[in-house]
Amino acid sequence: MRLVSSDQRLDDVRFWEKEVDDKLSALKQETDALDMFRNRLQAAVEAYEEPLRIAQLCLANRFVDSNPQTEADLRGGQGGRGHSNLAPQQVPGKAI
């Protein structure tokens, strides 16, 4: 059995204390960097919410405009049953 002096034990404890402190400091820095990136990403998402909503609305309107039977369904009409053989320019009240 090897005997270790109290000075050696104290040096070992100080060494490991410094190692733990260094790792903790590195983790804090990494966490701060990740928080900064998360905040930037959240701001970017918020900045794109309104343009995305507008683009989705435009696409939905374009889809409805190109599918008059769907438009009748959405407006509570006859679901296109009375228009099934009409070309889009022949749909009553719809100018193309």
Would you kindly provide a written description of the structure presented here, covering whatever features stand out?
The protein is mostly helical and 96 residues long. The protein has one domain (6-90). Helices cover 71% and strands 0% of the residues. It has helices spanning 6-66, 68-74. The relative contact order is 0.05.
Question: Structural class, judged by helices and strands?
Answer: mainly alpha
How many beta-strand segments? 0
What's the quaternary structure here?
A: single chain
Strand content: under 5%
Annotation field: number of helices: 2
The total number of structural domains is: 1
Biggest beta sheet summary:
none
Order of helices and strands: HH
The general outline is: rod-shaped
Gyration radius (Cα, Å) is 34 Å
Distance between the ends: 96 Å
Give the averaged pLDDT, no decimals: 81
Binned, the helix content reads over 70%
Q: Unreliable runs, pLDDT <50, ≥5 residues?
A: 79-96
Quickly list its features.
mainly alpha, disordered C terminus
How do the helices and strands line up, and which of them pair or pack?
Layout: H1 6-66, H2 68-74
How would you concisely characterize the structure shown here?
It is built from two helices and no strands. With 96 residues, the protein is mainly α.
